[in-house]
Amino acid sequence: MQMTMADKSTNALSKEAKEMIENLHIVTIEESVSNAMEKSMTRWNNNWMENPRYKANQLELVDNFVVKCSALIDSAIKKTEVKVDKLEEVTIEHERRLTSLEKMADDFDQSKLGCNIVIRGLKNEIEPITAVTNMVTTALGIHITQNNIKYLVKINLKNEKENTVSVKVAFFDQRLRDEIYSRRLKLKGTNIYISEDLTQKKSSLAYEARQHVKNTPHTSTWTVDGTIFLKDSEEGKPRAIHDANDLKQENASATISNQPRTY
After folding, report:
1. CATH of domain 114-197
2. pTM here?
3. Coil, strand or helix at 136
4. Which residue, 75, 123, 192, 245, is most buried by CB atoms nearer than 10 A?
5. Among 171, 178, 169, 218, CA closest to 197
6. Helix-, strand-, coil-residue percentages of the chain, each rounded to 5
7. Would you list the domain boundaries of the chain?
8. Using N-to-C axis directions, what is the helix angle for 29-49 and 52-111, rounded to 10°?
9. What is the C-alpha separation between 142 and 132, in angstroms, rounded?
10. What is the pLDDT of residues 35-48, one digit of tens each?
11. Residues in a beta bridge with 117
């Protein structure tokens, strides 16, 4: 029966121990066993190195193992990449829906301000409501009374000029509000300005549009029904501005009428 490597190692161990005892070497049993095992392993390693076929088989097994591990790792990476791509697609879709919902909510909030306007530059010498009715009647040619106004509140704006006041005015009749707003250009040169009452989001965007116009010749901006419009040149067509990225689009266009809504 062929002896196994373990049997050979055991026999070698016993032989080495026997030789050391017979030669009366003064060593402990632990040292004898350790030395015998070291010599046995050295002899086995030499045999392994001298056997090219066995060595080739072992190296082939190692190579196959490495290849299989690499294949498993590559497969896991690809599956992970697929999952990441799907998550990115889901995230993009969620962001798109969230942006759409935020816009819908902002448009809804803006619709509740449809009867409002903001007036800046009124003289702070008389009651604001009286100043509004007088200005609209005389400067814009639209006869109104305090009964046409639902409410009026003072607002604090940046860079307010001395002895002037800004107010937010809500009218009962939206058609009256639209007519007043459509004639706002008649106030040019009077230091009185009429603008729409905008949500915070739209107000910030309108400010960015005004800054763009301030730094870009031959451009203009305005709002109609809460939508911000920008004209890139004197001959260009107005285009709607829905977010800050729209300010960078020079070729986009939109149709706009500066007339009040019809009923």
Report:
1. 3.30.70.330
2. 0.62
3. helix
4. 192
5. 169
6. 55, 15, 30
7. 8-50, 114-197, 198-263
8. 90
9. 11
10. 655 665 565 566 55
11. 169, 196
